[in-house]
Amino acid sequence: MTLEMGDQTEVQLPGGGVEAGESPLQALHREVLEETGWRIARPRRLGAFRRFTYMKDYDLWAQKICHIYVAHPVRQIAEPTEPHHATLVLSASEALAILANEGDRLFLQRHLR
């Protein structure tokens, strides 16, 4: 999990935008590394959902397509490079209780069944 500390502190799954020329899977590896400093292996796609949210950095409302994966942690090779992010290691029940995004919680609940 990622703890994002800004105007509001939120626990999130690592994530972000898919850059030009990048696949969602490539973005997953990049975002996990940037936000947690970890390398991951064997990612498996669980699904996707739409999220409508205000993006303060861009001063606009956006529709995001969130691709959800489960993966195995390999090792932490660095500290997070994304500003105001920290790595959290939580149990499934802890994560379900504090994930800020209801879509993330739904996919975690489904995965745990």
Automatic annotation (TrEMBL):
InterPro entries for this protein: Nudix_hydrolase, NUDIX_hydrolase-like_dom_sf, NUDIX_hydrolase_CS, NUDIX_hydrolase_dom
Needed co-factor(s): Mg(2+)
Pfam families recorded: NUDIX
Hydrolase keyword on record: yes
Region described as Disordered: spans on this chain: 1-24
Keyword Ribosomal protein attached: no
Signal sequence, renumbered to the chain: none
Domain Nudix hydrolase stretches: 1-113
Keywords: Hydrolase
Source taxon at top rank: Bacteria
TM ranges: none
Family designation: Belongs to the Nudix hydrolase family.
Listed name of the protein: Nudix hydrolase domain-containing protein
Protein species of origin: Sulfitobacter indolifex HEL-45
Lineage: Bacteria, Pseudomonadati, Pseudomonadota, Alphaproteobacteria, Rhodobacterales
